[in-house]
Amino acid sequence: MHNYHKIQAPFKRTNAKDVLIDENVFSDMYISMLSNITWLGTEKIDGMNLNLCYDGNHLSVKGHTDKTRFSQEQIDWIDRFLTAELEQMFEQYFGEEEVIFHGEFVGPKIQSNLYNLDDYKFIVFDIYIVTKDVYYSQSAVKGIAEQFGLEVAPLVVVGTLQRIIEYVKSAPSSMLNPKQEMEGVVIRPEHELKNFTGHRIVYKVKLRDLLGRDAKCIE
């Protein structure tokens, strides 16, 4: 199983057909109880979901689902990316643990190449230990990914939910391309939490939901 779980917004929409969310109506009881805690907001990268999977022996790359298809150009990049040295690093670090590095695949011909990249990049945003059913904290994700020479989704804002909303409404520039507005942020509690059903507490706050428009190119 390598597809990443769905992330919802912290607020409900004003109605079924409306783009904007209603900031006065929380999407669930958890965000209503935790709105004033400290949240970590990382940039929501707009690309193609890609998963770097280690099964305890071998390293492979998989898309969001088994139906995901890659172009030949993308396959060639992935083949160069999956080196014997990288696989050996996973073996030394994780041993027989099964691990998935969840990330975004960005670059030419992916989502109109919003970040104006000349080549592809794999940007890690979560690390999941399959055998233990545990996600690493964001500080651990950053530290581990950097040890493997991998880029991580940048931490861009820290604070209460209201602070997060104000930040996204300011339409900040993407950390990957200063000439492109940020699509939004993914927020998690400073310390990883789960709800009563055992699912992670994580939300996405998008520019489109708050301002009613997509992120745009900055002239």
What oligomerization state is this entry in?
Answer: single chain
Helix proportion: 10-25%
Radius of gyration: 18 Å
Write down the overall geometry: globular
User: How large is the count of helical segments?
Assistant: 6
Q: In sequence order, what are the helices and strands, one letter per element? A: EEHEEEHHEEEHEEHEEH
Observed structural traits:
six-stranded mixed beta sheet, alpha+beta, 12 strands
Question: How would you describe this structure to a colleague?
Answer:
This protein is an alpha+beta fold. The protein has helices at residues 29-34, 72-81, 84-94, 138-147, 161-169, 207-211; strands at 11-13, 21-26, 39-43, 48-54, 59-63, 99-106, 121-129, 134-135, 151-152, 155-159, 184-189, 203-206. Strands 4, 5, 6, 7, 8 and 9 form a six-stranded mixed beta sheet that branches. A hairpin with a 4-residue loop joins strand 7 and strand 8. It is globular. The mean pLDDT is 92.
What topology does this entry show?
Blueprint (H helix, E strand, L loop, with lengths): L10 E3 L7 E6 L2 H6 L4 E5 L4 E7 L4 E5 L8 H10 L2 H11 L4 E8 L14 E9 L4 E2 L2 H10 L3 E2 L2 E5 L1 H9 L14 E6 L13 E4 H5 L8
Parallel strand pairs: 7-9
Antiparallel strand pairs: 1-2, 3-10, 3-11, 4-5, 4-6, 6-7, 7-8, 11-12
